[in-house]
Design a protein that fits this description.
This protein is α+β, with helices and mostly antiparallel strands and 103 residues long. Among the domains are: 36 residues, no CATH class; 30 residues, no CATH class. Helices cover 19% and strands 20% of the residues. It has two helices and four strands; from the N terminus they run βαβαββ. Strands 1-2 form a two-stranded parallel ribbon. The chain has a two-stranded antiparallel ribbon with strand order 3-4. The radius of gyration is 24 Å and the shape is elongated. It starts with 5 loop residues before the first strand and ends with a strand. This is DUF3499 domain-containing protein. InterPro entries: DUF3499. Pfam families: DUF3499.
Length: 103
């Protein structure tokens, strides 16, 4: 409420609202407003972070497993035709490429 010089701090929004932002609990607790503004807090305490779900833990384990696997040699046929001279593609994941400058 800019015209009222009021900052309202409440629960996370369910829908996108213009001029509203979702904050983590650390930033919400430390929120300050410009001098002369009023801060209205609709909740006194923020809920604790939820424990990781089994899906979160599985995704983390999969990422660690993948990172621990040996690196594959780059496929020269998969390199982009516009690759700069002196640059070698070392890995690819989807549309992302890891490039290394040749010495």
């Amino acid at each position: 409420m800019y015209a009222d010089s009021t900052a309202v701090l409440g629960p996370l929004a369910h829908l996108a609202e213009p001029h509203s932002y979702d904050l983590c609990s650390e930033h919400a607790e430390g929120l300050t407003a410009p001098r002369g503004w009023e801060v209205v807090r609709l909740v006194n305490e923020f809920p604790a972070e939820p424990a990781p779900s089994p899906d979160d833990l599985s995704a983390l384990a999969d990422a660690v497993r993948e990172a621990g696997r040996g690196r594959k040699a780059p496929d020269p046929a998969a390199s982009a035709p516009t690759q700069e001279p002196g640059v070698t593609e070392t890995a690819r994941r989807g549309h992302l490429r890891v490039l290394r400058a040749e010495d």
